[in-house]
Design goal:
The protein is of the alpha+beta class. It folds into two domains: 49 residues; 78 residues, Alpha-Beta Plaits (2-Layer Sandwich), CATH 3.30.70. Helix content is 37%, strand content 23%. Helix 1 crosses helix 2.
Length: 148
């Protein structure tokens, strides 16, 4: 049996039913910590718990669905002390979270490093992030090899 693929629509919020809009508000309260429990969140927005549970897994802000979450990059780094440390610092400063790192043994003064990075909290676009990586002294090349 084939699994039916999800179908998504882009809809203006002003035509959505009130219960769906209140579900979004309740989810925001829970995510921000302004409500500790589902019961507290739905009470604050004036929604039943059954309506919340009916819609909570089907409604998301548009930017949350469009944003790339995980990228895999490949970089050629010069084999000298501190280069990888600078790269890691740049990723952390940019709001990225490193999920995996794989580094080859340096050959002819250069090592390849592949990293999977969670970019959900980054303020930079992936293009700006990549360009910033390439400005780090010791990074000779940085490319995106995968997105997820």
């Amino acid at each position: 049996m084939k699994k039916k693929e999800d179908v998504f629509y882009l809809i203006r919020s002003n035509i959505l039913p009130e219960s769906i809009l209140k579900t979004v508000e309740a989810k925001k309260l829970l995510e921000s910590g302004k409500a500790d429990t589902v019961f507290e969140a739905v009470e604050k927005v004036g929604l039943s718990r059954s309506a919340y549970y009916k819609y909570k897994d089907g409604i998301f802000p548009f930017n949350a669905m469009m944003r790339e979450k995980i990228i895999t990059i490949s970089m050629n780094l010069e084999h000298r002390s501190g280069v990888l440390s600078k790269v890691l610092g740049y990723i952390a400063q940019s709001g990225g979270n490193i999920l995996t790192i794989h580094q080859t043994i340096p050959l002819q003064g250069s090592a390849n490093v592949a990293m999977s990075i969670d970019t959900a909290s980054m303020d930079l676009s992936t293009t700006d992030f990549l360009e910033g990586l390439e400005t780090i002294d010791g990074v000779s090349k940085a490319i995106i090899v995968g997105r997820g």
